[in-house]
Specification:
Blueprint (H helix, E strand, L loop, with lengths): L13 H9 L2 H4 L9 H8 L4 H27 L27 H4 L12 H7 L39 E7 L5 E7 L4 H12 L7 E7 L4 E4 L6 H5 L7 E6 L5 H4 L10 E2 L8 H9 L6 E9 L6 E9 L2 E5 L10 E5 L4 E6 L2 H5 L6 E6 L10 E4 L3 H16 L1 H16 L10 H4 L4 E2 L6 E2 L3 H12 L1 H11 L8 H5 L15 H10 L6 E6 L7 E7 L2 E12 L2 E5 L10 H10 L10 E2 L6
Parallel strand pairs: 1-5, 16-20
Antiparallel strand pairs: 1-2, 3-4, 3-5, 4-11, 6-7, 7-8, 7-13, 8-9, 9-10, 11-12, 12-13, 14-15, 16-17, 17-18, 18-19
Keywords: Cytoplasm, Phosphoprotein, SH2 domain
GO molecular function: insulin receptor binding
Main location: cytoplasm
Length: about 600
């Protein structure tokens, strides 16, 4: 064996020393007796190569393990010269005893380094047990696996990813248009409304709501802000749909609670001082037991007949008395449960259910989809009574959740109080008010003067039209033509609709004071009608045209207060009550999605 080029410390390896002792003397000392012995040279360098010797010993131990592993592989699977397995070649016969076949996993220990070409077949077989996209996860419950089950979780047993928990929801607007929105499984009704407001470029005044509409049942209700949209949709039939609509009365109870519950309809379990704060606390406190009582028309299940019964609403459910107005436990019969039910408004109760009045309501179990037999149909004498029952149902069922939904927009508004002005774009913020009345323009520094100039500029088109008409030249937009067209661009004008349709729109968007809309008059083609809500009652006021000095004006009070168009009229009554019972506050709007 040639020793040239080998490090001296390599000779310390016991495997090599054994080989050296077995070789002839002539091979151990080829230089002859004249040269110093190998042991003397090792002794001279032993002290200098202590660290290197330990490092080489570790390397030799790894080489020995590699040598033994390769020897075992060469005995079981012979290799060709190109490094591939000779699988089709028969094994050579010899005196060696035949060993039982072992699996690839038992053949090689994974803690030992193995030659890459020798384990290529093992890697191919191991792909059957592992996936290339997910790492192997040890099963934390091996005792639950059967004898044939692998101790590794398969990809099919893993929980689905959150990215797949999405669903498409179709939402309709009042004019029949619709939009398909992809939402997450945990999206609430408030979140979806804010998303639709952003996509539709509407003003977010926290009065938008999502309506659950069942046309085949003639029912609808406004979803609470905390309800999950996907969960509500799972209880709806295929004919049902979601509507995107305004509802100004959604939290009106928290603003004016005394207007919702007449004294004869509310009974408290403890003494109440009758204040608004005490009224709210009694409804929101789960330990209190308020009761709403009164007469309602109740439709019998499975029949077309209606009966007028004395009904009381408690936290445990809705009960009716079988003996007059008695509320003794033996005379009370359960009509509906509040836990797994929701309260709806009847859209066409007279036509579909032969209801005695137009102020119908329904308690619908969540499990009911198309069947009308399990619907608990009720009717009130007037709209205020129906609103009282429906508001009490919501308060007794949700309690503090309803109040938290009301407080969230208030808290956001308080945080944004220093920035009360609307957020504008960069280009709009770079604009300043200018005055070009003189020979040179000047920047208006006074905010009050700037606002006055803006209002004057907004009405400048009326002055120019009037001046051009007086001089005898025809204005591009004639005053008479302009006054009959300009209002049609406003959201509060709803065109040629009937009185019943205008009442229905106001009821849907909330019976709050100051809610209004304008429409064309059906009796007078040149007049218009202002439909206004006050004290939960809807009133109509006719707007008549009148002429003065050859110009057409509009008036609500027989010509005492005249306006050149309907926009001026609406602007005036939004600031002044005048002959109306209240100021114009909210306008009914329909948005195209």
């Amino acid at each position: 064996m040639a020793l040239a080029g080998c490090p001296d410390s390599f000779l310390h390896h016991p495997y090599y020393q054994d080989k050296v002792e077995q070789t002839p003397r002539s091979q151990q000392d080829p230089a002859g007796p004249g040269l110093p012995a190998q042991s003397d040279r090792l002794a001279n360098h032993q002290e200098d190569d202590v660290d290197l010797e330990a490092l080489v010993n570790d390397m030799n131990a790894s080489l020995e393990s590699l040598y033994s592993a390769c020897s075992m592989q060469s005995d079981t699977v012979p290799l060709l010269q190109n490094g591939q397995h000779a699988r089709s070649q028969p094994r050579a016969s010899g005196p060696r005893s035949v060993q039982p076949q072992v699996s690839p996993r038992q053949r090689v220990q994974r803690s030992q380094p193995v030659h890459i070409l020798a384990v290529r077949r093992l890697q191919e077989e191991d792909q059957q047990f592992r996936t290339s996209s997910l790492p192997a996860i040890p099963n934390p419950f091996p005792e639950l696996c059967g004898p044939g089950s692998p101790p590794v979780l398969t990809p099919g047993s893993l929980p689905p990813s959150q990215a797949a928990a999405k669903q498409d929801v179709k939402v309709f607007s009042e004019d029949g248009t619709s939009k398909v929105v992809e939402i997450l499984a945990d999206m609430t009704a408030r979140d979806l409304c804010q998303l639709l407001v952003y996509k539709s470029h509407c003003v977010d005044d926290n009065s938008w709501t999502l309506v659950e509409h069942h046309p085949h049942l003639g029912l609808e209700r406004c979803l609470e802000d905390h309800e999950l949209v996907v969960q509500v949709e799972s209880t709806m039939a295929s004919e049902s749909k979601f509507l995107f609509r305004k509802n100004y009365a959604k939290y009106e109870f928290f603003k004016n609670p005394m207007n919702f519950f007449p004294e004869q309809m509310v009974t408290w379990c403890q003494q109440s001082n009758g204040s608004q704060t005490q009224l709210l606390q009694n409804f929101l406190n789960s330990s209190s037991c308020p009761e709403i009582q009164g007469f309602l028309h109740v439709k019998e299940l499975g029949k077309k007949s209606w009966k007028k019964l004395y009904v009381c609403l408690r936290r445990s459910g809705l009960y009716c008395s079988t003996k007059g107005t008695s509320k003794e436990p033996r005379h009370l019969q359960l009509l509906a449960d509040l836990e797994d039910s929701n309260i709806f408004s009847l859209i066409a109760g007279r036509k579909q259910y032969s209801a005695p009045t137009d102020h119908g309501l329904c308690i619908k179990p969540n499990k009911v989809r198309n069947e009308t037999k399990e619907l608990r149909l009720l009717c009130a004498e007037d709209e205020q009574t129906r609103t009282c029952w429906m508001t009490a149902f919501r308060l007794l069922k949700y309690g503090m959740l309803l109040y938290q939904n009301y407080r969230i927009p208030q808290q956001r508004k308080a945080l944004l109080s220093p920035f009360s002005t609307p957020v504008r774009s960069v280009s709009e913020n770079s604009l300043v008010a200018m005055d070009f009345s003189g020979q040179t323009g000047r920047v208006i520094e006074n905010p009050a003067e700037a606002q006055s100039a803006a209002l004057e500029e907004g009405h400048a088109w009326r002055k120019r039209s009037t001046r051009m008409n007086i001089l005898g030249s025809q204005s591009p937009l004639h005053p008479s033509t302009l006054s009959t067209v300009i209002h049609r661009t406003q959201h509060w004008f709803h065109g040629r609709i009937s009185r019943e349709e205008s009442h229905r729109i106001i009821k849907q968007q909330g019976l709050v004071d100051g809610l209004f809309l304008l429409r064309d008059s059906q009796s007078n083609p040149k007049a218009f009608v202002l439909t206004l809500c006050h004290h939960q009652k809807i009133k109509n006021f006719q707007i008549l045209p009148c002429e003065d000095d050859g110009q057409t004006f509009f008036s609500l009070d027989d010509g005492n207060t005249k306006f050149s168009d309907l926009i001026q009229l609406v602007d005036f009554y939004q600031l002044n009550k005048g002959v109306l019972p209240c100021k114009l506050k909210h306008h009914c709007i329909r948005v195209a999605l």
